[in-house]
Design a protein that fits this description.
The protein has 495 residues and is mostly helical. The protein folds into two domains: 2-237, no CATH class; 253-494, no CATH class. Helix content is 80%, strand content 0%. It contains 21 helices and no strands. The chain has helices at 2-17, 19-52, 55-86, 89-94, 101-116, 118-131, 136-165, 170-193, 203-218, 222-237, 252-261, 264-278, 282-287, 289-305, 310-328, 343-346, 352-382, 386-410, 424-432, 437-459, 462-494. The relative contact order is 0.08.
């Protein structure tokens, strides 16, 4: 427990001494409060409808709401814990200190609840606490107790999979599948036989039981979980971390052409090409692109029935597709994903303006290529006139420029020059998965900016929407550039 207390003291002193950390925490707190209050308003109206249908329906829906919230806690917790538990420098240092296994496990658990899941828990707490009104207290107690247990089960499952099942190869994977199918089949059988209770338990009783389970796992059973964590950590340290090259065919000539110029812009563009093509998930992303295009054929009549213009539908679907597939799913943090590799650019004879410009252009090219291709295909599909199609493609390019600037330059606040990326698994998590608080905040801001731009496209004629989008881009570029430049200057001064 002393180690957990020391960790909290370190976090508090960091906020006291670091103005950048205070600013980041303030922005994230404001975003979390806004998201929580907005979701509380929606939940309040929904709860009123459930209450009119009867107490039994209200209780069942609130239990379902808690279950869905716990699934979100488990998903977000698992994404961040994989990196923190086995590849973080603080974790490596922690395992060199003469500490009991239970202390290391409790420190990881404290980080998971107090740092990684903090904003998600705050949003959910505000949503439940404000949205449920007079009946909020027992359900809030149930949610928090369940979230604490879910976080523990995520750690325990990760330790078992990494330490006991993965070393067995395909047999370990088979045991995982058998276990999951067994749990699902057993629960379905009990439900069909009527052996499960027909009514939901009271939230106070269920919350107390969950909290008691958490106390047992963290307290008396902490040493057992700590030893399991040590076993999994030792197995993870023995993984083969050599980087393997999987370059897509057809890029050789383009890379050779860019390499002849020997300019910093060409170098970063070649790096972006190689980084995307060597990812194991890049080919599957390209393979499902035709499925997304076919999905447009189902969504288009629904959107047209609501009175949206064809050009607005094409622009909205294209930009949303590129944002989800080209940014959030593949590279949500262009600068933050560099880690200590960004030092090579900072010590090069380049100004910070040049670095920011090159990162934006190297990040933007693939988004524009994909956006123009998808927009052209969808525009021809719905039969847009050539002039309207050209205006739609310009609108797509302007919207992608603003989103690219937000993510490329905003991700400077996700940069950690002390972070070394080694191994294919850690590289995938660092470069392609939104596991940090800053990345989650950028995704929230990205959806807000996308909504603003779509409102401009839908409410104004397309010819008038283009200068309005250019104005929005100018504001986003100016703000993001100043914020990113300030962060890079701070990194240079801090060394």
């Amino acid at each position: 427990m002393r180690l957990m207390q020391f960790w909290w003291q370190v976090q508090w002193r960091t906020l006291q001494r670091d103005s950048q950390a205070r600013l980041t925490a303030g922005v994230l707190l404001a975003l979390s409060l806004g998201m929580g209050l907005w979701s509380a308003t929606s939940l309040s109206a929904q709860v009123a409808q459930w209450g009119q249908a009867g107490t039994e329906l209200l209780t069942g829906r609130l239990w379902l709401l808690c279950l869905l919230a716990w699934v979100s806690v488990a998903s977000v917790g698992l994404l961040g814990t994989v990196k923190k538990a086995f590849g973080d420098e603080e974790t490596l240092l922690l395992h060199t200190l003469p500490l009991p296994p239970a202390a290391r496990f409790r420190a990881l658990y404290a980080w998971l609840l107090g740092d990684h899941l903090c904003n998600l828990l705050l949003i959910a707490t505000l949503s439940i606490g404000v949205g449920l009104g007079r009946i909020a207290l027992p359900w809030l107690f149930l949610f928090l107790a369940g979230s604490a247990l879910v976080a523990l089960l995520v750690l325990l499952g990760l330790f078992l999979v990494v330490g006991a099942l993965l070393p067995r190869g395909w047999r370990g994977v088979a045991w995982v599948l058998v276990g999951v199918l067994g749990l699902v089949g057993g629960a379905s059988g009990l439900w069909g036989a009527g052996l499960l209770p027909s009514t939901w338990p009271a939230p106070e009783v269920a919350g107390a039981a969950l909290l008691l389970t958490v106390g047992l796992l963290v307290g008396p059973l902490g040493s057992l979980l700590g030893r399991q964590y040590e076993t999994a950590f030792q197995v993870a340290q023995g993984w083969d971390r050599r980087q393997r090259v999987h370059t897509l065919p057809g890029l050789d000539r383009l890379i050779v052409y860019l390499s002849r110029h020997r300019t910093p812009d060409s170098a970063l563009l070649v790096k972006e090409l190689l980084q995307r093509s060597r990812s194991r998930f890049h080919l599957p992303r390209l393979a499902v692109l035709p499925l997304y295009l076919l999905l447009f054929g189902w969504l288009y009549p629904l959107a047209a029935a609501r009175g949206l213009p064809d050009s607005g539908i094409v622009v909205a679907y294209t930009v949303a597709l590129v944002m989800l597939g080209g940014i959030i799913d593949s590279n949500p943090s262009p600068i933050g994903s560099e880690g200590n590799r960004l030092t090579l650019l900072l010590v090069a004879p380049l100004s910070l303006t040049d670095i920011l410009r090159m990162k934006l252009t190297s990040f933007l090219w693939s988004l524009l290529a994909l956006g123009v291709l998808v927009g052209l295909l969808l525009g021809l599909w719905v039969g847009l006139p050539l002039l309207v199609l050209a205006q739609s493609l310009v609108a797509i390019a302007l919207m992608l420029l603003g989103l690219a600037a937000l993510f490329a330059w905003g991700s400077a606040w996700d940069e950690d020059l002390d972070l070394s990326v080694t191994g294919e698994a850690q590289m995938f998590i660092q470069e392609e998965v939104p596991v940090t608080v800053v990345r989650i905040a950028l995704i929230q801001l990205g959806f807000s900016l996308l909504g603003l731009m779509l409102a401009v496209v839908w409410q104004l004629p397309l010819l008038l929407a283009l200068p309005a989008l250019a104005l929005v881009d100018g504001i986003v570029l100016a703000l993001a550039w100043h914020v990113a430049r300030a962060k890079l200057q701070w990194l240079v001064r801090a060394g």
